[in-house]
Write a structure and sequence with these properties.
homodimer; alpha/beta; Helix Hairpins; Rossmann fold; Tyrosyl-Transfer RNA Synthetase; 3 domains; 23 helices; about 10% strand
Chain lengths: ~475, ~475
């Protein structure tokens, strides 16, 4: 009987294991075909609940490569490994079950990039003679590829250029969307180099239920917010793919070159495309890759193909550039270097990236001072205790507190930030006080952005978006 | 023992059957990945020899859907069905085992197009007031889609435009390549409509071992031969994809629209692409499709999307336009109409299309009078008998005689052609005399082409290839 019961338990555990595998595939498929957030969320919930049942039944976590009764030797079964395995990062979906957000150290290992360490930050400081941006000091830009090579070139007076971009899926941009642009502007200033900014309106047309005109309209509106970050009009070219493809003698040629050297198998592996995906989606990665090569911009770089590109972007965009770096030597171009940022957390917590379609998930660039106050007070996930007494006694948890996380992004004063961390952790500072500090940082920041954006006329946008020479001093 | 032998025979027949299936898949795979002609030919030979063994063993032809001992009821097992089944037609490969060439009636059924019948030819004559071109009279343009709709529009004074193209895989063009252009020029003349000609240099770059510059160079060289066909410079726009994509505000937008509405599954089904194909190949069909829609040419048609397109082309290009016609209603555009031609046979026989890489497989546009004479005399497959005596007694076979086939393309005089057919079939005309007639037709035709091509200066090519208004009278 004991044996019988045991074998029954095994059968049921195996069934559960198989259900998890199936449900996991289902989630991946939903993500790959860009299903609605609701649909994905509910499938993920089901998956997590199956995993909980499994853990309850088996006394250990579900492991994809280890069916019940078949423990894989040497694999770490600890809770940390499990947590990291549940992180999912690709250009369309970022998902983690940890309130601290994605485990970035594990992501570096998984993606094969390098950590931005103290040594590299010091080298940037030496090369530019400028104090490193607080995004570097605080690990918000935390990972890189070949940044040392860019610095070698820079120190030898060899040229490089910056490339970043945005997928204009709606008119609404939130503060999180500004992170790469704030940092890119700093890079442009301290290195004094040209910059190209790609608006992937074609991508948004392909992935979303938008018309071409809508996607292009969003590109132009978003360009205004980007310009409001303060980019130098003489050193910056912003382009919509839909527009620039039909204006550039170099862009399409590089797109075709890249497309010749990437197979469906490769994009399937990198991006999770399936046979049911449109050929537009399948070939799009080449369009995001092409600006990594300088002769995609003959008006700026002529026919030079040897100018190194440096791409500051959120880490979820890395798959595109892993592909690009794989192709580059095959077509005789240098590999682009990268600087990766962490994700900006949603007000509700670091488990997900913010959504431009949920107005309460973040602070939008159009929010009034009052809206900012209300949103922070009402929606910002708190690491505080349930009662003031408990909070005073045990202190708050900065690692999961969204207001504190936002301050690491926007409060420039290191000493003040450290003081807040100490006071909140010790319980000396209450959640209401922490939120008040954030509100007082965000309100002027957004108001100033809005004032600068108002100054951005249609003529200015047009000039930024006109293919033209940029002023820089290359050898 | 009898039973035993029987079951042994069955096993061996089944093994043979499976070998044929495997070899057939191998041939398809070679074709799909554009293997060398030699490689494909040798695999096809092996396939045919396996099929012969099978027939010898089983007393009946190999049928893909009918393994030995499992006859599928209701399927026609006659030799005709078998012959047609061995025809293979896609944009990269045309293969048949019949010396008469492809069975075009079966192709019409398989592709779902319509036969160009006497009634349609009469209607074209009434609409244009011109005697139908001998390519129509002789069934060289033999199939169509929606030609009646084009004529309805034309009779109601509604506009349409012509679109044809060429894949510039080398500088060398042969007489067979001129067929669609000769016919398109006639259509342009009798209907007085604008024409766009696509040079798919991007396709050739993607499929062949060429650089972008080589592919573009071939496009320009081939354009000269096309212009030498006599197109009206005021009504004709010739474009290289590599060039025009970066010059047109409308082309890429239509490409993306099409790419959004076609899945990998669909192009896999239509073109036989596999997961190992480049994403360039996979997305290319949208680029051949886009010129079917008038707003791909804003310089000619403005933003009008309602102008019907008529595409004269060889039938092997039909898969592209089946896909295009499938997409058109989804993106709010009219379906293009088509006129399909048969294939121009190689000198060695109608089993294959000619190859630009084999100088003896056809008459090239650069051949001298002497080369033409030698090639026809030496290489043109003859339907004559082994000896003069036999020929006089039994007559020659025009159905397989390549010289006679070439005359149906290039000898305009119907009466003279009919007389030759009678005389050769009866044995009154010998092979040498038939070949002499062909040589006398081809020599001046090629010489005149060469003279006209000499007149085509770089400036003229440049003007044909410059996006510009065309002169036409649309309502």
């Amino acid at each position: 009987m004991a044996n019988m019961a045991n074998s029954e338990a095994c059968a049921s555990a195996l069934e559960l294991f198989n259900s998890i595998t199936t449900q996991g595939e289902h989630v991946r498929a939903l993500k790959a075909r860009n299903a609605s957030k609701d649909e994905i969320d509910s499938a993920v919930k089901m998956l997590l609940s199956l995993k909980m049942s499994y853990k309850a039944a088996m006394g250990e976590d579900y492991k994809a490569d280890c069916p019940p009764g078949n423990p894989a030797p040497g694999i770490n079964h600890g809770p940390e490994a499990t947590e990291a395995e549940e992180d999912f990062v690709d250009p369309w979906t970022v998902q983690t079950s940890s309130a601290k957000g994605i485990d970035y150290d594990k992501l570096i290992v998984r993606f094969g990039s390098s950590k931005i360490d103290k040594e590299l930050i010091n080298r940037i400081e030496r090369a530019t003679g400028q104090r490193p941006h607080h995004f570097l000091r605080r690990g918000i830009f935390f990972s890189h590829r070949d940044m040392n090579q860019v610095l070698d070139a820079y120190e030898n007076k060899k040229p490089f250029y910056l490339y970043t971009g945005r997928g204009p899926s709606s008119e609404a941009m939130h503060v999180g969307h500004l992170i790469p642009f704030i940092f890119t502007k700093w890079l442009q200033d301290v290195f004094n180099v040209p910059l190209v900014i790609q608006m992937t309106d074609d991508e948004k047309y392909l992935w979303k239920d938008l018309t071409l005109d809508q996607a292009y309209g969003y590109a132009v509106e978003n360009a205004k917010d980007i310009i409001a970050c303060g980019f130098d009009i003489n050193k910056t070219f912003i382009f919509s793919d839909l527009d620039y493809m039909g204006m550039s003698p170099g862009f399409y040629k590089n797109v075709v070159k890249i497309q010749k050297h990437v197979t469906f198998n490769q994009v399937k592996g990198i991006f999770g495309f399936t046979d049911s995906d449109s050929i537009g989606k399948i070939s799009f990665p080449a369009i995001q890759a092409a600006p990594s090569f300088s002769n995609s911009f003959p008006q700026i770089f002529g026919d030079r193909t040897d100018i190194q590109c440096l791409i500051p972007c959120a880490i979820d965009q890395d798959p595109y550039f892993r592909m690009t770096r794989d192709v580059a030597p095959k077509i005789g171009y240098p590999k682009p270097a990268l600087l990766h940022s962490t994700f900006f957390p949603a007000l509700q917590g670091a488990q997900t990236k913010m959504s431009a379609s949920d107005p309460n998930s973040s602070i939008f660039l159009t929010d009034t001072a009052k809206q900012i106050k209300t949103k922070v007070n009402k929606h910002a996930f708190s690491g505080g205790r349930d009662t003031i007494e408990e909070h005073r006694q045990f202190g708050g948890n900065c690692d999961v507190d969204v207001s504190f996380m936002y301050l690491t992004f926007f409060l420039e004063d290191d000493d003040k930030l450290e003081q807040i961390r100490k006071d909140y952790s010790s319980g000396a500072m209450l959640t209401g006080e922490l939120k008040k500090t954030l509100i007082e940082v965000l309100q002027p920041l957004i108001a100033e952005h809005q004032a600068r954006r108002k100054e951005v006329t249609d003529e200015i946008v047009k000039e930024f978006m006109t293919p033209r020479k940029l002023s820089f001093d290359f050898q």
